[in-house]
Amino acid sequence: MLEDLQEEMGLTYLFVAHDLSMVRHISTRIGVMYLGRLVEIADSDELYENPLHPYTKALLSAIPVADPQLSAKSKRLMLQGELPSPMHVPSGCHFHTRCMYAEEGCSREVPEMKEVSPGHFVACSCLPIKG
Ligand code: SF4
After folding, report:
1. Could you give the CA distance from residue 106 to residue 130 in angstroms, rounded to a whole number?
2. Residue of the nearest CA to atom 6 in ligand 1?
3. CA–CA distances in Å: residue 107 to residues 41, 87, 126
4. pLDDT tens-digit profile of 36-78?
5. How close is the Cα of 23 to the center of ligand 1, in Å?
6. 114 in helix, strand or coil?
7. Ligand 1 pocket: which of 99, 116, 122, 127 to mutate (most atoms <8 Å of CB)?
8. Which CATH number fits domain 2-123: 1.10.10.10, 3.40.50.300, 2.40.50.140, 3.10.180.10?
9. Does the first or last residue of the chain, that is N or C, have fewer Cβ atoms within 10 Å of its Cβ?
């Protein structure tokens, strides 16, 4: 229905969701947010095929796979700890308390959003990220 309306009325949507399989289906461009900050922005196919921010990677790895054989082969990235309170966000990179790649400076510096390839932006001061 949303796609029909979009075509008929020439609409642009800002679609906010947690279900990333749905997001891929409906979006042409995606911004991933963590505790109120954008951490990665890219066209839909680029984001799903080449996620760079550790939070994006963790979100994508959590998408259920319907095929049991493929599901058994896929590796889920488990985040450490609990989601911090939005009333008391961590210093520096908001994600540093849960990031598997965090380094010393991550708790002090707010990472800048950088364009790593045309139209693909990532906010992580430790790029290139392993994994
Ligand atoms: S800046 Fe540091 S804590 Fe933040 S996502 Fe990058 S590696 Fe992780």
Report:
1. 16
2. 124
3. 22, 17, 12
4. 999 999 999 999 999 999 999 999 988 777 777 766 767 777 7
5. 24
6. strand
7. 99
8. 3.40.50.300
9. N
